[in-house]
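Appendix B. Chain record.
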Amino acid sequence: MRETAIVQVDAFTSEPFRGNPAAVCVLDEPRDEAWMRDVAREMNVSETAFLTPAARGFGLRWFTPAIEVSLCGHATLASAHVLWETGRLAGGESAYFQTASGELAAQRTDHGIELNFPAYRVVNVPVPAVVRPVFGVEPVNVAEVAKSNMETNYVVEFASEDVVRALKPDLSAIRGPGSPGLIATARGDATDYVCRYFVPVAGIDEDPVTGSINCALAVYWAERLGKSAMTVYQASARGGRMRVELAGDRVLLTGHAVTTLRGTLYG
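Structure tokens predicted for this chain:
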């Protein structure tokens, strides 16, 4: 029976049991996709990351309990954390990842782990028919995430942080195949903006803290706030914080991570 080390990391937090948990497997060689899907279902956290050696850095794939995704922030941050913590990378080395969304990079800074991700365009659209029945609250604005590798997502802006925190969405309308993810957001009270992310089609009713949605939110809020560097709070039950900076066609996402579990997979 094969044995594979696995590490669970809480990302975008400095405290255990906050932020977003990700499982990370660092593999000596690729494993078949069916095995990776089985492991992701077994771990049953929002993302499980699989790292394999590559010509430059590591190949990286991400699976929810239901699907493979093309971009994931918190599991990339967790993967970089594991590479440094286990000594696979020296502390001053940058991490490079070959992914379905191109090469991604991570480095340690004074503020935490900084991820270099693509920026996504957002285009204002009329309120889609699905939004009102899900939220039951009239949005200030809706924008579609355009020209990205992400599954269909809408940015739904509300009047205040209090409204976003109080949302109790009826997710039945966005459970079927091809349904969009909904990113609820508002100007923040203590941070520049707040957000929540609902994506049942990926097997996750509400993602605790989501780096990838800020590839769009950084673009959306930079235009409205007139600034490129911003602070973010994702107001899920677990909660998480990050810094974002829009840098041309890239978004820099910075946060912390903490290891909560180490184990061995058999199979």
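Further analysis of this model is presented in Appendix C.
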